Amino acid sequence: MNNVYKLHVRLIKTGLQNDPVSLRRLLLSFAAAAPASLPHARSVFARVPSPDTFAYNTLIRAHAHSSPSHSISLFSAMRRDGVSPDNFTFPFVLKACARLRIGHDAHALLIKLGLSSDIYVQNGLISFYGSLGSVAGALDVFDEMPERDLVSWSSMISCFANNNFGYEALGLFQDMQLVGNLKPDEVTMLSVISAVSSLGALELGKWVDAYISRTGLKRTVSLGTALIDMYSRCGSVDDSIKIFNAIPVKNVLTWTVLINGLAVHGRSEEALKLFHEMKNTGLKPDHITFNGVLVACSHGGLVDDGWRVFESIKTDYGMEPTVEHYGCIVDLLGRAGLLNKAFEFVDTMPIKPNAVIWRTLLGACVKHNDLKLSEKAKVKIHELDPNHDGDYVLLSNVYGQVGRWDEKANVRNSMREKKVGKKPGYSFLNEGDMVQEFVSGDDFHPKSNEIKQFLISIIDDLRLDGYIPFTCNALHDVEDEEKEQSLSFHSEKLAVAFALLRFKDRRTIRVIKNLRICYDCHCFMKHVSNKFDREIVVRDRNRFHHFSKGSCSCKDYW
Known about the structure:
Blueprint: H1 2-13, H2 20-32, H3 38-46, H4 53-63, H5 68-80, H6 90-100, H7 106-113, H8 119-131, H9 135-144, H10 150-162, H11 166-178, H12 186-199, H13 202-215, H14 221-233, H15 237-246, H16 252-264, H17 268-280, H18 287-300, H19 303-315, H20 323-335, H21 339-347, H22 355-367, H23 371-384, H24 389-401, H25 405-417, E1 426-431, E2 434-439, H26 448-464, H27 480-488, H28 491-502, E3 509-513, H29 519-531, E4 536-539, E5 544-548, E6 551-552
Parallel strand pairs: 3-4
Antiparallel strand pairs: 1-2, 1-3, 4-5, 5-6
Helix pairs in contact: 1-2, 2-4, 3-4, 4-5, 5-6, 6-8, 8-9, 8-10, 9-10, 10-11, 10-12, 11-12, 12-13, 12-14, 14-15, 14-16, 15-16, 16-17, 16-18, 17-18, 18-19, 18-20, 19-20, 20-21, 20-22, 21-22, 22-23, 22-24, 23-24, 24-25, 26-28
C-alpha cells in the first residue's frame, strides 16, 4: 500500500499525474492493493479529466469483489459519459451484479451492444447466472457457445456444484476431458470436490483424490483443505486426517476444517487437542475456528473445556464473541442438562439472543423433559420467529413424552390454523451414479412396497433382541400399534432397509438426512448394526452418527 502512495507522490513531483500512461500504471497499482487502496483510487480517478475504457475497467475490476456497489456506480458513470464498455468491462460488472443479486437485464444489454458472443463475456454470464441460482440460464449460455475454454467448463461445473446438482457437475467434468480435451486446473478441481462433498459420496471422493495424484496436480493449501473437508463430509474423517498430515503447509482454514470435521464426527477430545496444537504453531484462530472447537466441546460434553475456550476468545485474543459463539455455550450447557444455568447465561448475554439461541434452549428442554422451561423458550421464539415448524414439533414432542396428549393435539391444531407446515423428513444414499431418495411415510419409491415389507420384518426380528420402538414422539394419542407404524417408516429406516436389500456385500451403509435423527431411529440403527453386523453412517442436520456392533460414535450424547 505504501508503494502505491509513493508512486502517486512521485508522479505529482515529476508532473506526470495527468499523463495517460502514468495514470494507467497508477490505477493498476491501486487495483493490485485493493481493498485498502480503493478510497484513494476513487479520489484519484475523480481528477482524471477524460477517463477512457481502460481506466473505467480497472476501477470496476478493483471494486467488483469487495465493494460491488461502487462497481455498478462506475459502470453507470461510464455509460453516462459516453465511454464504450468492451468485453473486459462486463465480466466484472456481472461479478458485481451477482454479489448484489441484481442485473437481470444485463444479458439483454450485452446482446444490444453486440458483446454477447465474446468468450470472456459468456464465461462471466455463466458465473452470473450460477450465482443467482439460475442453472437453466447458465446452461443456455454454455450450450450456445461455439468455443469453450477451461474457464467456460469450470464455470459451468461450479454452477452445477453450487446449486446442488452434484452428479451433473461430475458428468460435465467427464465431458470436459472427453469432448473438450482439456486438463483441469485447481479451480476446476475445487468445484469437483465441492460437488462430491454435497453428495457425501465417499467412493467418488476417493476417485477424485486419486485423480489429483495421478495427474500430478499440485496439492496447494486450498486443494488440500478442500479434500480434508470433502472426506469429512463424506463420513471418513480418518481420511481427512491422512490428507492433513500429508500437507506440508497449512493455514488457519486448514486447521479449522479438520477441527470442524472431528467435532461433527463426535471426536471431541481429538478436536480440542488439535486446537491446542494449532495454537502452538503460532497461528491465530479466527471466529470460525472457535465455533468449531465449541461445537466439539458441546458434542462431547466437555463443559469446563468449552467454558475455557469461550473465555479465551476475549481474554487471550482480544476478540468479541459472536452470537454463534454464545449459541454454542447455550448448546453446551443445554446438552449437559444445566438448563437453569443456560437460561441465566442467555438472560445475561451482552448480545440480544436470536431465535436460534432460544430454539437451542427449547431442544435441550425437550431432551431433558423440562416442560415448564420448554414453554418459556417457546414464548420467546414466538416473539422472534412465530412460523418455524421445528419449534412446534419440539414442543409437541415434549408434551408427548409426558403423556399430555391434549396439549400435544393443541400444538398440532395451532400449526394447522397458522398454516405452518411440517418439513418432511427425507434421506438419500448413493448407489453408483444414482441417488436413491426416501421420504418419510410416502410410497413414491418404485420399490416402496418391497422396502416397507422388509422393514417390518426387520423390526419384528429386532424386537426379539430387545428393540422397543420409542413411541412418545408419534403424532397422536392413539394405540401403540398405530404409533409404532408412524415411526416405522421414517426416511432413514427406509434407506437402510433398501441398502440391506440391495447391497449384499459388506460395504458401509451411508445415509444423508435433512433433519435431526430421532431417538427411535437412533435406537433402531444401533440394533441393525449389531443384528446384521454392518456399519451404518448417518449424516443428519447436525452431525455424523457412526453405528457399529450395537453402539454409536456419539455415545448416546446428542
